[in-house]
Amino acid sequence: MKVSKLAPFILILLLGMLLIIVRTCRKEHAHIPEKKVINAPRGLNRSPDAIHYSKHARCRMACRHITEAEIKSVIKNGTINYKKSELQTDECNKRYAVEDIVNKQRIRIIVAPCQNELTVITCIDLEKEWECECP
Predict the structure, then answer these.
(1) Which letter does DSSP use for residue 92 in this model?
(2) Smallest Cα–Cα separation from 87: which of 76, 98, 75?
(3) Euclidean distance between CA atoms 4 and 46, whole angstroms
(4) What is the pLDDT of residues 26-49, one digit of tens each?
(5) Where are the alpha helices (DSSP H) in the chain?
(6) In angstroms, what CA-CA distances link 64 with 24, 26, 28, 85, 117?
(7) What is the pLDDT of residue 32?
(8) pLDDT tens, 3-31?
(9) Strand order from edge to edge, sheet including 79-80
(10) CA Rg, the chain, in Å?
(11) Would you say 75 and 66 are in contact if contact means Cβ atoms under 8 Å apart?
């Protein structure tokens, strides 16, 4: 037989061997356990060590008559509005929009978690427009 007639068979044989090698390597790597991060924060920490308030948040709270206790209640019990949140970024740049009804006010707060602390960026009364001159 000529070499030119054997070439397709040799090529098929080599491709078959390559396929077997690739599948074997994949199976070996499939058994390697993934690294797990212990105590990795997931989602919004509703019991942070500290809550900080931006100047803007303090101003909005004052003109909307919202207290720190009400803000803490929203953080603890509120629902995350994922449409208004910004979560596709690194940990300390995430923004959660958390909503709840407190003392007949429908409130949304925007909080920024970083490590084990939260910063309240702003608060919004979802049903009433307030006259505020906040920066």
Answers:
(1) G
(2) 98
(3) 72
(4) 655 555 444 443 344 468 999 999
(5) 3-30, 55-64, 68-77
(6) 65, 59, 61, 22, 24
(7) 46
(8) 677 777 787 887 888 778 877 766 555 55
(9) 50-53, 117-125, 105-114, 96-102, 79-80
(10) 28
(11) no
Options 3.40.50, 3.30.2310, 3.40.1350, 1.10.3470; CATH for 50-125 is: 3.30.2310
Which tokens belong to 84? 């208004």
The band of 98, judged by pLDDT with boundaries at 50, 70 and 90, is very high
CB 134 within 8 A of CB 56: yes
Q: How far apart are the first and last CA of the chain?
A: 88
Instruction: Give the start-to-end residue ranges of the domains of the chain.
Output: 1-32, 50-125
If you ran DSSP here, which 8-state letter would residue 33 be given?
Answer: P
Which residues are within 8 A (CB) of 110 and not within 5 positions of it... i.e. 6 or more apart?
A: 84, 95, 96, 97, 98, 120, 121, 122, 123, 124
